[in-house]
Design goal:
globular; 2 helices; seven-stranded antiparallel sheet
Length: about 270
């Protein structure tokens, strides 16, 4: 299996994550990502230490508390393919959180270095920017959970729904150079769900000189590391594809560079 694919643990012990990515395991500096599955009544308690955290309720209802704030009975969708915006909670570094599951819960924990600039807050569905990108078979549906114009120190968090037979993260683009204002350096993870779950998504990760060039078949519940390079996604006919993106780097701005061979497609999409 490719080193870019991270597979879930099918039988984690206790309240361990079913999927875990750390800067050390990924071989990079900024992004950490975990997924937990909790049963009703279970509680997950963690300190944020030096990282800011975005807790994304992928599915289920929960109570969430931090050192100074709490939100009761939050959550709306039971699974991602209801395609309504999620409830999320932003937690700064040097804080803590406790999540109590009221139903079965799938929780994504997105992490990146914090600077203590912003307090904990609830990100309700009404706070999530909803947009449609692309046209025809590149059309996909976006939930901007923590975009660059909303307060955070490092994290950028977005989820994408790609209909069957469509492409997303397309035209192929990259953000692996600290060369603003043209391009920003952002590490990125993709966490996938596929409906029906026996399906798969296709993701290619490649650089201009092809020092990295992998085409991946990604299953439901797996994650993909994008340390550099272009990274388009395809949903095969018959299967809907969801992914949650987490990005972070030295500067919190998303400036990408399209593959010159395929950049012309972007102008066609705008027609």
């Amino acid at each position: 299996m490719s080193k870019l694919i991270v597979s879930p643990e099918r039988q984690p012990s206790g309240l361990d994550p079913i999927l875990s990515i750390t800067p050390e395991s990924a071989g990079w500096r900024y992004v950490g990502f975990e997924v937990y599955q909790l049963n009703p009544g279970e509680k997950l308690s963690r300190a944020t230490a030096g990282n800011e955290v975005c807790l994304v309720l992928l599915g289920g209802l929960a109570n969430v508390a931090t050192a100074k704030s709490s939100w009761m009975n939050i959550g709306q969708r039971m699974n991602v393919f209801e395609q309504t915006p999620p409830y999320s909670v932003y937690v700064p570094n040097d804080d803590r959180y406790e999540l109590e599951a009221l139903t079965k819960v799938e929780l994504a924990v997105c992490e990146a270095p914090g600077k203590g600039n912003y307090p904990a807050r609830l990100i309700a569905p009404g706070d999530v920017g909803v947009e449609i990108r692309g046209t025809g078979t590149t059309q996909r549906y976006i939930h901007n959970i923590l975009p660059e114009h909303k307060p955070a120190d490092s994290l950028l968090v977005v989820e994408v729904f790609t209909p069957e037979g469509h492409w997303s993260s397309y035209p192929p683009h990259k953000h692996d150079r600290d060369a603003l204002p043209e391009e920003s350096l952002l590490e990125e993870t993709y966490y996938y769900h596929v409906k029906p779950e026996q399906g798969f998504a296709i993701q290619r990760v490649y650089t201009d000189v092809r020092s990295l060039d992998e085409t991946l078949a990604v299953k439901d519940g797996e994650a993909v590391l994008v340390p550099k390079g272009y990274h388009p996604v395809s949903a095969p006919p018959g299967y809907q594809v969801y992914y949650l993106n987490v990005m972070a780097g030295p500067t919190r701005i998303w400036k990408f560079h399209n593959d010159p061979d395929h950049a012309w497609i972007a102008s066609r999409q705008q027609l």
